[in-house]
Amino acid sequence: MYLLDRLNRKGPKRILSLDGGGVRGILSLGFLARIEMILQQRLNKQDLVLADYFDLIGGTSTGAIIAAALAQGHSVRKIQEEYLQLGKKVFEPDLLRRGLLRSRYKEDVLEESLSDFFGDETLGSENIKTGLCIVTKRADTNSVWPFFNHPEGRYYEKNKGLLLRNLVLASTAAPSYFESKIIPLSTTGGLDIKPEFIDGGVSMFNNPAMLLFMLATLKGYPFQWQTGADNLLLVSIGTGCWEVKGRRAIPFIAHGGISWAKAIPDMLISEAQLFSEQLLQLVSQSPTASEIDVEVGNLSTDLLGGTAWLSYLRYDVPLDEKAIVALRMVEPEGDMKKMRKMDDADQMHKLNKLGQAAAGRLMPPFHLPRAFDPPAILSSSNGSEEAVP
Length: 389
Prior knowledge:
By secondary structure, the protein is an alpha/beta fold. It is built from 14 helices and eleven strands. It starts with a helix and ends in a 27-residue tail after the last helix.
């Protein structure tokens, strides 16, 4: 079996992690297009796709859509084209739906779009070219469920027939935006259950990078890849970031608990992202290490155990006018508050332009270590990294 041979093959392994973030997922596609172009030129293989390079691709919510498409061997350009159309169809405003008593958007539109793209492909399909992980959360048990396609996984035989589109739909079922997704499963005793799943972003893993690292290395999972800066590469792509300033506590008596309830998801996602970044910087070798805070800095002088467990790259787009100007990426366009929303499809073309500019500015070719160039697709190309602008 090709996939099993690939996942169990000795040698360096490469992981790609994709954040959730609604329509802002178009930002991550700018970085993915950049990676694809760098590798095509470096390896002198113009038809190379990211499934040829990464051995495990995982994502949460909108990241799950992109991850599943990449794992099937689609080019980033094709996914960008489909993604722009998807956003317009799925996030069409409906004045009769406010997300209070029912979901804000019609899940049947998203389901139809995913069905058109993924068809009847299953988690165990031979058309999936590489390792794939779709991050979901089971609502009735409040537990994160990473569905992955390693043939030696404990639940692979039970899960391999699950439709890819349904798993992606479950991962994107953000509360108040879309209805939860019921996926029938078989238990160990042979009984069928019908648990409800919601967006994997309603957890510590809207950014699934740490989860994918654990999936790849813990003994309870089948991958069990060797750690080390020259053995494991993790590339993590975000969907926009910004600094929150000036927020003040809102008294419960004056405004009621609903004001706090609206703010809690963003608070938790932000805190989980920061914690994940701290942990990964603490155990990795990383040229993209960012400042955690003014007290501890970017952890460049801290390394747990004294030895790096992996090489780690993290990329994100600052959705802040001052940061964009400072990076000299592009002239800021439009209202940043609107661009930060996860469901404003009208902002997608601006976000797409910004994502491509940020990738060109923040991702030099040398960030991708040559130690991880796959021998199977190396050529005698005389191309150099300097050829990539």
